[in-house]
Amino acid sequence: MNHSALQHPKFFNRYVEKVPHGDLNQLMKTAYQDLQSDLEILKGAEFNYSYQEGKWSIAKLIQHCIDTEQIFGYRALCIARKDPNPIMSFDENQYADASETKFDKDVLISSFDIARNQNMQLFQGFDVDWLNRSIKTEHGEHLSLVSLAYIIIGHWLHHKAILINRYGVPFNEK
Q1: Residue from 138, 68, 137 nearest 96 by CA
Q2: Could you read off the pLDDT of 59-91 as tens digits, one per residue?
Q3: I need a surface site. Which of 18, 34, 47, 52 has the fewest CB within 10 A?
Q4: Which pLDDT belongs to residue 147?
Q5: Contact status, residue 171 vs residue 164, Cβ threshold 8 Å
Q6: Residue 92, CB half-sphere, CA atoms under 13 Å: how many?
Q7: Helices marked H in 3-104 — which ranges?
Q8: Is 11 a domain residue?
Q9: Domain membership flag for residue 150
Q10: What is the residue range of 101's domain?
Q11: What average pLDDT does the segment 25-36 reach?
Q12: What is the CATH number of the domain that holds 156?
C-alpha cells in the first residue's frame, strides 16, 4: 500500500497510529476476528456500569462504536463512489444522548459484529486502485478511502483501551 494514500484530518491520527501497516484486506479480517473475541468477553460485562458519574455506560460506549462504525462505512462508500459532496462531521455526544439509556446487551453485541462484518466486506469489494481516492471534509481536509479503513480499525482499539483502563474489562491482550 502506498502510505502517502493515508490522508485524514489530524484528529484521526490517534486511531490510525494504532493499526500496523499491511495488506488492507488482511488487516480488516484480523481486526474483525479480534473484535469477535472482544465481543465474547463483553458478554460478561455489566453494560450499565459507568466508571464515573456523567461518563458513558459500557452500553452507551458500545452504541457509540456501532454508530461510528456505520458512519465510517457510509463515508467509505461515498469516497468509493466518488460522491462530490463534502464529508460532514457528527457530534458523538449528541448521538449518544439521543440513544438514551435502554440497551439490550445481545442486540448491541450482535449489531457491532454485523456493522464490522459489513465494513470488512465493503472494503473487500473495493478495487485496490480506489484506496487512493479521497474526498474533502466540510473543513476542506482530505480523507482517503484507505485512511477510513485504518480509522475504523483504530477507533475500536482506542475504545477497547478505555474499556480496559477505565472500566476494567478484562480483554485478552496479545
Answers
A1: 68
A2: 999 999 999 999 999 999 999 999 999 999 999
A3: 52
A4: 96
A5: yes
A6: 14
A7: 13-16, 24-42, 58-80, 92-98
A8: yes
A9: yes
A10: 3-45+69-165
A11: 97
A12: 1.20.120.450
